Structure formats: structure tokens, C-alpha cells
UniProtKB/TrEMBL annotation:
GO MF annotations in UniProt: oxidoreductase activity, acting on paired donors, with oxidation of a pair of donors resulting in the reduction of molecular oxygen to two molecules of water
Protein name per Swiss-Prot or TrEMBL: Fatty acid desaturase domain-containing protein
GO biological process: lipid metabolic process
Gene source species: Lymnaea stagnalis
Cellular component GO terms held in the UniProt record: membrane
Stretches that traverse the bilayer: 56-77, 121-141, 169-192, 204-234
Length: 359
């Protein structure tokens, strides 16, 4: 009995067959595959019954606290005490990540508020001015490519985070510290192929923002320009290692599809996305949608982080009831998995899953 027959006669949704050349063929019974609309109705009902505070307010408070902490850090850095100075660097780094990752990510998805114009404003503030990256480049890479083409080879497969020429331990724990230098360079490289208006806008916003931060470090904190540059590098490296880890843990190593064999959205997102456990620091600095509710975020990208957390039980229950995968793993387990399987995951081309939908 072949895999197709087994799927048709089995009570399970999917039967996988491993071919000699390493391709996994996933035979999925489309009659048993639930419609995305069924889950969407349940989630929409929760969103509509939620207050503004739940939909936007809780996350807005976190953003305000992060900005306040970001400003307060410049005063901590003025201290002559080495302990308070280190605390200032750490606080600046954590708040910088919260603004440039969590807040910027939500703004890019129009999840900070109901106004598109205000989301664009916040996106430029947190991404270009504070983060020295381009909101336009981020939108092209993340919103237009990664999300609709999650784990589709050559499109949204997270391959930009793969560095086959770098040894595993170096890649996992050293090269992320180059992020503060590489981030603006990547933005410049990508934005140069865009319209002149976007190029000029990014250069003005990003480098005026960087100049402002250096000014605050020299005038408010009383540092020399050399020390100010060192502090900028140091604070942006506070969470650089987990930032790279999270970006590879939650997609690479899960089923990846060719553009010719891509599954329906609900199957694509549930097979190709993984949730990490809740973590106070990473939840605050990266957001639930990136850490513990990444599956929910990929299914409903315009939900705020708090709403992703609120709908998570419904999404998980729906996946379990309909025999859909719901990937979860711990941070330490993923580190061990990537270190042990680095060649297969990050050096060699990722294995392809061929989706075959059966009527």
C-alpha cells in the first residue's frame, strides 16, 4: 500500500514519505484540512469582544515605559560608579531592543493602533531614527516577502540569516555581535535599489537619529565621542545573540516548500513556525508575537502582541482538534539542536517538503 492509499484510508490528516534524494513528500488529505476561515471567525470574535486596552493599550504602555527607560539610561551613564554605568548600558540596550524590535515590528504590521498613518509614523521613529535601519526595507523584506512566503524556498525561507562559511560556535555566539555594524550597512545596500525619495528619507532620518543619540551620550552622559561610540556598540549588542537565535530557531529546520509545492495558508503556517516558551526579558524586548506566540502572529499578523497572547489558547486548541502541527520547544533545546545539526541546518541546503494535497 503506497503513501497515497495510506493517507486516504488513515484517520490522520497527513502521511509523510521519505524519498531517496532527501525530499519529504507530505500527502495531506484536503477533505480533513480545516479552512482558515473557521479559525479566523473564532479569533475575530475574541478581538471584537476585547477592549481597546487589550487590543492596543497594554502594548502601548510597554512602549512608553521603554522610551522612558531609554531616556533615563543617558542619565545613568553619567554616573561615576562603574556599577551604575554598566546598569545604564544594560538598560539602554534592553529599551533599545524593545523599541526597535517589539515596537518596530508591531508598527510594521499596523498592529500598534488602528490608524495606518500613525503606524507609519511609529515605524519610521522606531526603525529609522532609533534603530538606524530602514522601515521601507524592513517592510519589503518582512511584510511583503517573509510573511506571505514563510518557509518557501528562495522567498521567505529565512535564508538571509544563514552563513554557511562560519563555524557553528562562532556563528551562534560571536558573529551576532557584529549586528550593530552590519544592520545599517544592510539597510544602505537594500535602500539604494529603491526610489530616490526613500533613499534620502532614510539617510536623513537614520543618521540624524544616530547623531542625536551620540549627542545625548556626550552632552547628557558626559562621555567623549569615542566612548559614546563604544556605548552605542555595546548597548545594541545586549540582546544581539538571542535576536539571531530567535530568528533561526522559529523557522529553519521546520518543513520548507518549493514555490511549486506550497500548501494552503493554514498548513504552511502551522508546519513552518515554532513557538518558544514565555520569557520575561524576551517577551518585553521582542514581543509575544516573536517569542511565545509566533504561530499566532503568522496566522494573524495584524494582531498586537497582547492579542496574540489572548487568542493563543483558541489557536492551539484548533490545531490540536484538527490534527494540525503546533510546534513548541524550549530555547535551550533549540540551541542544542542547532549546534548539533549546524551543518544540515545552516550549511547545507535545507531539505524540501513536497506538499501533495489529496482530494
Amino acid at each position: 500500500m503506497d503513501a497515497t492509499q495510506r493517507t486516504q484510508e488513515s484517520s490522520t490528516l497527513s502521511v509523510k514519505k521519505f524519498e531517496d534524494h532527501g525530499v519529504v513528500v507530505d500527502y495531506v488529505d484536503l477533505k480533513k484540512l480545516p479552512q482558515f476561515g473557521a479559525l479566523s471567525e473564532q479569533v475575530s470574535a475574541i478581538v471584537q469582544s476585547s477592549s481597546w486596552w487589550e487590543r492596543y493599550g497594554i502594548d502601548c504602555c510597554i512602549h512608553v515605559l521603554s522610551f522612558a527607560g531609554w531616556v533615563a539610561s543617558f542619565f545613568l551613564l553619567a554616573s561615576s560608579s562603574p556599577y551604575i554605568f554598566v546598569l545604564g548600558v544594560a538598560t539602554l540596550g534592553l529599551c533599545h531592543s524593545s523599541l526597535t524590535v517589539k515596537a518596530s515590528h508591531m508598527a510594521a504590521h499596523s498592529a500598534m493602533c488602528s490608524s495606518h498613518a500613525w503606524n507609519r509614523f511609529w515605524s519610521f521613529l522606531f526603525t529609522d531614527i532609533i534603530g538606524t535601519f530602514s522601515a521601507d526595507v524592513g517592510y519589503n523584506i518582512h511584510i511583503k516577502c517573509h510573511h506571505p512566503h514563510t518557509n518557501i524556498i528562495g522567498l521567505g525561507d529565512s535564508s538571509t540569516f544563514r552563513a554557511p562559511f562560519v563555524p557553528s560556535m562562532l556563528y551562534m555566539f560571536v558573529t551576532p555581535l557584529l549586528m550593530p555594524i552590519l544592520t545599517p550597512l544592510v539597510a544602505l545596500r537594500e535602500i539604494l535599489s529603491d526610489s530616490p525619495v526613500k533613499i534620502v528619507r532614510h539617510l536623513i532620518l537614520a543618521y540624524l537619529g544616530l547623531a542625536l543619540q551620540l549627542y545625548l551620550l556626550t552632552s547628557v552622559s558626559g562621555l567623549t565621542l569615542s566612548w559614546a561610540l563604544i556605548v552605542v556598540l555595546a548597548n545594541r549588542n545586549v540582546l544581539a545573540i538571542p535576536y539571531i537565535h530567535v530568528n533561526i530557531f522559529q523557522h529553519i529546520g521546520l518543513p520548507m516548500y518549493s514555490p511549486q509545492h506550497r500548501p494552503k495558508k493554514i498548513y504552511q503556517m502551522t508546519t513552518g513556525v515554532l513557538n518558544l516558551p514565555r520569557n520575561p526579558i524576551l517577551d518585553y524586548c521582542f514581543g509575544h508575537g516573536i517569542i511565545s506566540c509566533h504561530t499566532e502572529h503568522h496566522l494573524f499578523p495584524r494582531l498586537s502582541d497582547n492579542m496574540c497572547l489572548k487568542v493563543q489558547p483558541v489557536v492551539k486548541k484548533f490545531c490540536v482538534e484538527h490534527d494540525l502541527p503546533y510546534h513548541e520547544d524550549t530555547y535551550t533545546s533549540r540551541v542544542a539542536h542547532f549546534v548539533s545539526n549546524y551543518k544540515m541546518l545552516m550549511v547545507d541546503a535545507p531539505p524540501i517538503t513536497k506538499f501533495v494535497g489529496l482530494q
